[in-house]
Amino acid sequence: MRTLSFIIALTLATFSLNAQTAIHFDRPFHVAGEVAWFAAYAPQPAPKKIKATVFAPDGTAVDYFFLKEDANGQLNGYYRWPFEVATGYYRINLQAFTTDRRVIDLGTFRHAVYSDQRMEPSATATAGKGNKLPAANGLTLQASPDGLQIGGLNGAAYSVSVVNTDVSGETGEAFLQGTETPRGPWLDTLFYNANVSLQDGSPVVTNLLPVFDPGRYEFGFAKTGPNGNFTLQLGAFEGEKDLQVRALDPADIKPTVALPKLAAIGQEPPLTKEVAAYVDLSRRRRKIYQLFATVETEIEAKITAEERRKLSPNRDFDVQDYKAFPDMYTFFKEVGGELRVKVKKGNYSGRLYNAPNQRFFLDSPLYIVDGKLTQNENYINTMSPAEVSYLAYYYVGSELRKYFPALGNNGVIQIETLREPTKFPEEDADDIFAVKGLQPKASFQVRDAADSDVPALSPLLLWKTGKGESSASISLPATDDFGSYRVLVIARAADGSLRSVSKSFTVEVK
């Protein structure tokens, strides 16, 4: 497997305290449309970043994202199950990347998810059980409707879930622990397995595959394997963004992110009468929340924008000063004279002036339109100046080699538009592929029924992660659901192993 590096920060782990991985889910199972909150406890010292891939029951990957270790040394995530999911065991696979560039599986954890369609329970079905909880080993818990008192944390990271067990049931896979996993040391990076092929499907085998990252306005390079495969490494970013690969020759290529596939799980989670009742209540809750124009679980997450590398153009223009021109060909002819454009039989060809050498480059420049690469000069010259906000020329050799290596040998023209063009050249659009980065940070939103007109009816009363010096005191939010509530606390011990404690309390009818 080959490796491409943009921004790499090394995190060296010289020893491993505990080589097991675990996940603490907020509740034993979920229904379509619900949000699963979870805490991942990775081998210690933990990777700074891990990839979480979500698999459907048939083993196909349906989503992925990265989790970043927070200030408490935790890897916390969330996932809204699609509203259209079918009943089955879904899986979350965790992976990390080592300093010797290996992708390591930390563990795969299955979780029961049910469709929100009406269903008849099985008379013989019994609730599933998760892995045996770790011993308390000094961890203590006091629980009441007013709040929680957790003792014996000893400065460790912990996670807490408080669930109405009258609704969700007592058992299920809320805690899952993996087997022994290989140790690091880990590389602090986002990582992707990818492939690149020609349009006929044959692999692209090359020692120099340029990859452009428009978020940072940077180029990286990959060396592909015999099947057109390579490993892409990126610096941290949130959400999703596009990357673009280019061939050094005129070949039309197509990149893809390679996602793994697992064996299918034929077994379905048990359909007990408690689950059927829960699904029915879930539909009723949604109808109630619909009246308030909201959803049961809000996710308040704001994506942090990347900082684009600052470039110093050799000449630039505010094209809106010339928006009356009929096309960019006229703009280049009348204003931006460093680009000399010729027209032959309706086809345009341009050469950028190499000012330091006082001559024109020998071939067409590289155009970057809103972060997308193209050399389609018919597309560029027929654009309307009224749609272009900014244009810049780069033609000094030393800067071209620094900012636009390999592809900028004949100069670069940067174009920014007012609105993203809808007719980008198809042969260039095929070079673009999307990658997902860090999951934007979000916190479980606690509803206060006393201060809100929206009812608090979720079976999940509280989900919280943190780090306690010695103990933690947690106030519980108000709820409109009465019944028995179960508290589960998972905490890491000083040696990296996990501890747990669980208690129940009752909320009386008001």
Attribute tags:
510 residues, mainly beta, Ferric Hydroxamate Uptake Protein, Chain A, domain 1, 2 domains, 5-stranded mixed β-sheet, 6 helices, 40% strand, elongated, signal
In short:
Helices cover 9% and strands 40% of the residues. It is mainly beta and 510 residues long. The chain has a five-stranded mixed sheet, with no helix packed on it. It has a five-stranded mixed sheet with strand order 22-28-29-26-27, with no helix packed on it.
Strand order of the largest sheet: 4-10-9-6-7
What are the low-pLDDT stretches, counting only 5+ consecutive residues below 50?
A: 1-17
Number of strands: 34
Globally, the shape reads: elongated
The main sheet comes to: 5 strands, mixed
How far apart are the first and last residues' alpha carbons, in Å? 62 Å
The CATH architecture of the largest domain can be named as: Sandwich
- As an assembly, this protein is single chain
Q: Summarize the amount of helix as a percent range.
A: under 10%
The CATH topology of the largest domain is what?
Immunoglobulin-like
Give the CATH level 1 class of the largest domain: Mainly Beta
Q: How much β-strand is present in the residues?
A: 35-45%
CATH H-level superfamily title of the largest domain: Immunoglobulins
Q: How many structural domains are formed by the residues? A: 2
Count of helical stretches: 6
Sheet/helix structural class: mainly beta
Estimate the mean pLDDT confidence: 87
Report the radius of gyration as a whole number of Å. Answer: 28 Å
